[in-house]
Amino acid sequence: MGLFSKFEQHHKKDPMQRVLESLHGCLETKDEIRDGKIFCPEWDITITPEIDQLEQQMAVLNFYISSPDWEEPLFECCAGVGKDTDTAVGMAVGSFLFAFMQGIAVMQREEDGIPLESEFNGNIHRWSVYKSNVVGNGESTDDDAKAITNVYWDLLKEHIAKRLGNQKMCYVKIYAAKAIGTDDEQITGECRINDVPSAELGALVGKIAAKWEVRQFSSQKQFFFIKQDPATHLPYPYSVNKINVLREKVKTALDLFGGIQTQDNYDNLPDKMLAALGDKTLTEECFSFLPEICAEHAFGQIAFSEELQFSTKSGTISVYKNQLADFYPLGNLMFGLFDSGVFGEHTNDLYKLLISLSSIGSGVQQLREQGKELEGCRMAALIFNVSEDFEIR
Length: 393
Fold this sequence. Notes:
Elements: H1 3-8, H2 15-23, E1 32-34, E2 37-40, E3 45-54, E4 58-66, E5 74-81, H3 85-109, E6 114-120, E7 123-131, E8 135-138, H4 145-162, E9 169-180, E10 185-193, E11 196-197, H5 199-210, E12 217-228, H6 242-258, H7 263-277, H8 280-298, E13 303-304, E14 307-312, E15 315-320, H9 327-340, H10 347-356, H11 359-369, E16 378-379, E17 382-385
Parallel strand pairs: 13-16, 14-17
Antiparallel strand pairs: 1-2, 2-3, 3-4, 4-5, 6-7, 7-12, 8-12, 9-10, 9-12, 10-11, 14-15
């Protein structure tokens, strides 16, 4: 039974049940519906769908895909448009199945893996890259399916390798689109590494879309799933139950930030945080990263560098934020704690306090005092002064 005919059978059921039953049986492995999720026993993968937006002719679905073999869940958002709600949901589910999950299936079967080597912090890491099909929407741009499948990887592989750290696995989403209006054309180029957009790589993707011969609209989407060879994966202290362990430590760090009332409180904070967290590197990361991440969130109209620098007495090392095991996870956990309400009525005050402690916040204050607009401003890479025994991981 086809995806859309199968979906049509369940039009009287609630939307989430329709999503689940549209996924069930359409994956490239056996699956079960369990407690509002899809579980694939052979791959040990769980898919948790979420309805983000549902209208008469449009649906936006979020999918969280997790496995004990991965350090963190993967995320994909798919939109669908159709003559009615059922068709729109079917289109969104189809987009998820035909690109993202097709790539997951290739990775799980270890089919046609492309070898890749990268360097991070003086260590060589070896990877296998698994490409999904390219899923197009709108007008066709190329009749050669093989050429389409290779074009984005050939364009970006060297840039992506520079952004790999010591992860067990990472994933890259490519989205290119071109729309022709009455008086202009709109080009979209997107490259997201572990769901974090790279403006630099997105611009390269956009150059491909700009060359398309399109009368109205065309888009393409593709995924790369990149697994590290276990032989080159270095030990990481929170490999087991990473999210839950780090969440508690981030909560402790934020509680300590919230206790700052004087300059002495701030000066003594690193020692108090180290005593509470019991991890020198994580202490320096929380102390340095969390205020800057809040500031980047607050001033989204500014373009921030994808790189940062660590400075010690021995010298300065530049890395991409994507390479670090903790930078984006710590930020995600912090905002998750803010959203959960655990800090109650003090949440906004804590958020503002962190921004005020950041170098970005200081820079923004200087720009405002000079009467400059924040829109379009670009900030150089952050520089963090760290101890000699700080571990880049």
